Amino acid sequence: MKNPRTLLTYHDLSVEVQSSPGEELIEHMHETVLGTPGGLRYQHTDVADRLSSLGENYFMFLRKGKKMLGSVGFCRRPAVAAGVEHDSWLIRYFSIKAPMRSVPGNNHHRKPQQAGSDRASVLGRFIKPIFANPALLRDGGKSGVAPAVIFGIVERKNLRSVNFSEQTGLEKVGEVSSFTFSRMIPEKSARMEVLREAERQEMQTKIREFYREYTLFNGDSLFRNNHYFVIRQAGRVVAGLQTHPVTWRIVDFGSRGTTGLVKFLARVPAVRRRLDPEALRFLAFDGIYCEPGHEAALYELMEGVLEREKYYLAMLMMDSGSPLHTIFSERKRLGLLHQMLGSFEADIRIRFVNLPDRVRQYYMDHPTYISTYDNS
Question: Per-residue pLDDT for 303 more than 80?
Fold first, then answer.
C-alpha cells in the first residue's frame, strides 16, 4: 500500500491509512515528547528503524485538510492463546499533534467518566471502527471480522493515552515494569559469546519454551544484527539475551531533584564519559533466557554485554507479575541509575475482537511477553 487510503471522513476531517510511515510521520515522531510530566520525558532519535520494522504495519493519520493532527500505528503478528489462533495488533506511536475537541453528542445528565467513554475525542471516534474490526486496515473489512487482540502499553499518568484506551475499549490485563540495569565499570565475561547462526533454531525453541506460559510472545526481533549473546555451562546455553542500541534525547528526568542530581553528576569527568544527561544511550535487552538456577550467569551476561558493546546502561521491560520479573526483584543489584530513577510502571491494555471468553480469561490469567524492541 504505497498510496494512502481514506478510511473515514467527518466534515473537514479525514483518516488515512498507509503501510509505510513516510517522512512526515518520522519527522513528527522525532519532535514528539514521550513520557508524562513528573516522570522521565524524552524524544526518540532512531525511530525510523522501528517504524519500518519487519511485519505487517499500518499507520493511520488524522488530517484536517492537509495538516496532520494525530497518528497511530498498528503492527500485526500472529498469536495463539487457549488453543485459538488469532491476530495480535500492537498499538505503536500514538501521538496527538494538536488539541482536538470532543465530538458533539447527547451527553446531558451523564457522569464525567461515562461521558468520557461515549464522547470520544475526534481521533478516538474515527478509530473506533478499526478497533471493532482491525481487518479494515488490511482490506477494508472485505474478509469479515477476524479474531484478534489489539494491545498497547499505557502509562497511568498519561491521561490522554488512558482516555484514548478507554474510548477504544481496551481493558487492563496486567502491568509492565520498565527499569534500568547499569554498571559504571562493567566487568568482562570470559564465558560470554555471540550465538552461532547454526544454533539459532535450537535457541528459538529454548526461548519459546521459556515463555510458553506467556501471551503475545514473538521472536521477530531475536538474532537481529547477530546480537544475541549467551553463556554456556557444560556445553549448553544457560543464559541468553538480545540487544538493541537506543538513544533518547532527554527533556527531563522527572522531578527537579533527580534532574538536578543527574546534571550535577554529569559534571564529573568519569561520569560524563558514561552518562550524557541530554542524550541517553543504552541497550534494550530482549528475549531474555535464563535456565532455572543460573540467575548469576544471567547477571554476568548482562554486565559482560555492556562491557563488550562499550555501554554502561541497559533497559528491561517485562510483566511485573511474571517469573522473569521475580528474578530481578529478588536478586536486585540493578545499579546506581535504578536507585535514582526506580521502575516505571504502566498498564497492559487489550481489546478482544471476535474471541471466545476463554481466550480473554487466558490473557487475564497469564503474564504478557513485552518486547523491549517494540516499546523503547
Answer: yes
Domain with 192 in it: what CATH number?
3.40.630.30
Task: Return mean pLDDT, the chain.
Answer: 85
- When pLDDT is averaged across residues 49-67 and rounded to a whole number, the result is 80
Q: Could you tell me if 139 and 151 lie in one domain?
A: yes
Same domain, 162 and 298: no
Whether 51 and 159 share a structural domain: yes
- Please state, as a whole number, how many other Cβ atoms lie within 10 Å of the Cβ of residue 270: 10
- Residues 164 and 241 placed together within one structural domain of the fold: no
In this structure, are 144 and 110 located in the same domain?
A: yes
Task: Give me the sign of the Cα torsion angle 1, 92, 216, 180.
Answer: positive
Model confidence band, residue 283 (pLDDT cutoffs 50, 70, 90): very high
DSSP string, 299-316: HHHHHHHHHHHT-SEEEE
- The answer for residues whose C-beta is within 8 angstroms of residue 179's C-beta and 6 or more apart is 315, 316, 328, 334, 338, 341, 342, 343, 344
Is residue 226 located within the same domain as residue 365?
no
Residue 61: all three cell numbers together: 493519520
Average pLDDT (218-238) is: 95
Q: How far apart are CA 336 and CA 32, in angstroms?
A: 28
Asked if residue 149 and residue 222 are part of one domain, the reply reads: no
Identify the CA nearest to 216 among candidates 355, 79, 351, 71. Answer: 79
pTM of the model: 0.86
Q: Strand, helix or coil at 171?
A: strand
**Chain position carrying cell 546480537:** 227
Higher pLDDT, 341 or 131: 131
Phi and psi at 207, nearest 5°, equal -65, -45
Q: Is the pLDDT of residue 348 over 70?
A: yes
CATH number at residue 135: 3.40.630
pLDDT in tens, 313-326: 999 999 999 999 99
> Are both 134 and 209 inside the same structural domain?
no
| 135-175 confidence digits (pLDDT tens) | 888 877 677 899 999 999 998 877 778 888 888 899 999 99
CA 106, CA 93: separation in Å to the nearest integer?
31
Number of compact structural domains in the chain: 2
Q: What 3-state DSSP class applies to 105?
A: coil
Q: The domain containing residue 212 runs over which residues?
A: 179-346
